[in-house]
């Protein structure tokens, strides 16, 4: 039996540099490939599988919904939309929700809201402030807001209307925007997931909130990766005590079923009117049921508290195990959104993790190992992540 499998894919576009393994089934925080080999999933579908794999309550709810309606279109009322919207509004202290299917779509909608907000005020060429290391998606608009040259290169000309400034530098933000009458919004991730697990400081987020209020700009927070309980609060910006005007969600919202959302507060909630925006698949009955059940199960099982407890435990264990290792930089993050930074590119560890340790994780920003497991992770499973990952890291840093 092979340890890994690399299926032939002659008809699939080569858009992914795949790890040589084909996964077949999962249970909890574990998955198995087509050869029956078991893996501990510390990636969670890239922060998507909130409830792990094959959660009995979620599966039962989705099966029930599939026997009723999967899709109808937004020509008609979808009762599940109001159910899920009410849950998100209650937890965010915002007011209204637009549903889509992906994080990219959510950020596209947030950008459109920001631009139309400015145009409605008479600004002909709206400008949105974005940050170094940001990642907001791979469409032309969201790619233009993204900082990574690897994502942007080869797709020009990109979209105008974005002003990039250093993260966590309020003076630089003030100086870059001073006297610019075209600024309409500031857009940020509270923790930059694809950019290397860099958090925005709470004080900086408060300063940005105050600046947006003073200038009548929208404050747009991209919670696609950090939201839905991953950091121990429903949304990562809540650690700073602020409320944004626009918030994008996806990933963990449907526990694997594609669900995206834009949540808006009073200043932005009525910007889009019929005909301004829409979607075919967004807000369908199956997706809405997935979101409603995900939130219900998270609350029943105390998964926000678990993300904080087990996340703190895992970070401390990784720090202790790697302390003093030449080439180890730091462990950072919040809750179960964790980055382990090394002093050199470590992308090869993804495949080595699969082949040598039976562990799924990813590498972001070239040098940061990303750990974003399901929020059901236990301390015993966190210990297992440390046991599997640390020898790989030490061997890699030693040049072995």
Automatic annotation (TrEMBL):
Q: Which reaction does it catalyse?
A: N(2)-acetyl-L-ornithine + 2-oxoglutarate = N-acetyl-L-glutamate 5-semialdehyde + L-glutamate
| NCBIfam families linked | argD, PRK01278.1
Q: Where can this protein be found?
A: Cytoplasm
Q: Which family does it belong to?
A: Belongs to the class-III pyridoxal-phosphate-dependent aminotransferase family. ArgD subfamily.
Q: What else is known?
A: May also have succinyldiaminopimelate aminotransferase activity, thus carrying out the corresponding step in lysine biosynthesis.
Residue positions where N6-(pyridoxal phosphate)lysine is found in the record: 251
Question: What pathway is it annotated to?
Answer: Amino-acid biosynthesis; L-arginine biosynthesis; N(2)-acetyl-L-ornithine from L-glutamate: step 4/4; Amine and polyamine biosynthesis; ectoine biosynthesis; L-ectoine from L-aspartate 4-semialdehyde: step 1/3
Molecular function (GO) terms for this protein are:
diaminobutyrate-2-oxoglutarate transaminase activity; identical protein binding; N2-acetyl-L-ornithine:2-oxoglutarate 5-aminotransferase activity; pyridoxal phosphate binding
Q: How does it assemble?
A: Homodimer.
Q: How is the cofactor bound?
A: Binds 1 pyridoxal phosphate per subunit.
Entry keywords, A to Z: Amino-acid biosynthesis, Aminotransferase, Arginine biosynthesis, Cytoplasm, Pyridoxal phosphate, Transferase
Listed name of the protein:
Acetylornithine aminotransferase
User: What is the uppermost EC class here?
Assistant: transferase
Q: Is Cytoplasm among the key words of this record?
A: yes
Q: Which residues bind pyridoxal 5'-phosphate?
A: 135, 222-225, 280
The residues listed in the UniProt record as binding N(2)-acetyl-L-ornithine, with positions renumbered to this chain, are 138, 279
Task: Report the CDD domains cross-referenced here.
Answer: OAT_like
One GO term describing the cellular component: cytoplasm
What Enzyme Commission number(s) does the record list for this chain?
Answer: 2.6.1.11
Gene designation per UniProt: argD
This protein's cofactor list reads: pyridoxal 5'-phosphate
GO BP terms, alphabetized: L-arginine biosynthetic process
């Amino acid at each position: 039996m092979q340890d890994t499998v690399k299926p032939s894919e002659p008809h699939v576009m080569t858009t992914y540099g795949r790890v040589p393994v084909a996964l077949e089934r999962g249970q909890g925080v574990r998955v198995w490939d087509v050869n029956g080999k078991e893996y501990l999933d510390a990636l969670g579908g890239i922060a998507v599988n909130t409830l792990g794999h094959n959660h009995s309550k979620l599966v039962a709810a989705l099966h029930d919904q599939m026997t009723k309606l999967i899709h109808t279109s937004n020509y008609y009322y979808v009762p599940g939309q109001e159910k899920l919207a009410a849950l998100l509004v209650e937890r965010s202290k915002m007011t209204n929700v637009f549903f889509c299917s992906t994080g990219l779509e959510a950020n596209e909608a947030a950008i459109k809201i920001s631009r139309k907000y400015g145009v409605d005020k008479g600004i002909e060429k709206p400008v949105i402030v974005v940050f170094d290391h940001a990642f907001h998606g791979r469409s032309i608009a969201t790619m233009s807001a993204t900082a990574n040259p690897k994502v942007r290169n080869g797709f020009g000309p990109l979209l105008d209307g974005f002003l990039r400034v250093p993260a966590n530098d309020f003076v630089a933000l003030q100086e870059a925007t001073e006297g610019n009458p075209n600024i309409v919004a500031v857009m940020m991730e509270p923790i930059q997931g694809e950019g290397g697990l860099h958090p925005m400081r709470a004080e900086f987020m408060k300063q940005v909130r105050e600046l947006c209020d003073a200038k009548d700009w929208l404050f747009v927070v991209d919670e696609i990766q950090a939201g839905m309980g991953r950091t121990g609060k429903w949304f990562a910006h809540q650690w700073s005590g602020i409320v944004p005007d626009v918030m994008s969600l996806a990933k963990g919202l449907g526990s694997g079923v594609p669900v995206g959302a834009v949540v808006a507060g009073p200043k932005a909630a009525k910007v889009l009117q019929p005909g301004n925006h829409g979607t075919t698949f967004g807000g369908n009955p199956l997706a809405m049921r997935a979101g409603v059940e995900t939130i219900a199960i998270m609350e029943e099982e105390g998964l926000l508290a678990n993300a904080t407890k087990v996340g703190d435990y895992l970070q401390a264990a990784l720090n202790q195990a790697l302390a003093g290792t030449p080439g180890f930089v730091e462990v950072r993050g919040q809750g179960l959104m964790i980055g382990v930074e090394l002093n050199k590119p470590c992308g090869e560890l993804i495949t080595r993790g699969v082949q040598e340790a039976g562990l799924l994780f990813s590498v972001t920003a070239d040098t940061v190992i990303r750990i974003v497991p399901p929020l059901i992770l236990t301390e015993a499973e966190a210990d297992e992540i440390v046991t599997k990952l640390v020898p790989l890291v030490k061997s890699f840093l030693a040049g072995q």
